[in-house]
Design goal:
mainly alpha, 14 helices, about 65% helix
Amino acid sequence: MKNTSIIVTLLLSSNMAFAFDFSSLANDLLETTPAEKTTTESKQSSSTLSNSVVRDGLKSALKIGVDYGVKELSKKDGYLNNEKVRIPLPGNLAKAESLIRSAGGDKIADDLIDSMNAAATEAAPKTASIFIDAVDKMSMDDAKKILAGGNEAATEYFEAHTSTSLKELIKPIVQKSMADNDVAMYYDKATDFYKSNLKDTVESSSIMGMAKSYGADAYLPSESDEKLDDFVTNKAISGLFTMIGNKESEIREDPVAQTTSLLKSVFGN
């Protein structure tokens, strides 16, 4: 009982969420249309650009983002060494990660994390063509929706046009890489470690009662419905979306990243 409060605290964890931030871009491009705002002499307004130029600028930025994201994540430990996209323990074990580590399970947790991220890195180089194809097929309406749609508009576009193809492509690669990197073995070891050393203590009535009193019972480990290969595949795709979005934001906000006249004309101040 004397350690129950520590155990409950250790069980608390948080998940990272990623989304593209296009709201500023949308405001810059849409609020300056001829119907709403005139062009000033001191700044070239995007209203002076044709719709096709604006669309091509967006497509160019996304292609640069794809190239950057795929190359970065394809490097050795590309996922593992990037805090923004590193694949964590699966949800059921993530809730108990601190507890597992405090009980001497550091290597077990690290081996599983390393192997999952290695599987994602092996899959990354194969994805570029799917993203580029989706960008090439972007219509004027698609571009307008992205520019006007808010923070998750580009994510939603890629999800609608690439998710199925990406999963079909990545999952077999992830499955093979998981086998090569003994992911399932490490997952079983981590799960067995938890069950053998911690499960009975965590699920004791006293600790469960205290967790509920703190509103922390949702953070207690449970069985996961998501298959491990689906978990790694989805996280690998999410990481790619994140890297592409980060690069697009850089192009939008940093003049140094606007490396072509097209990018400067669409995104420059």
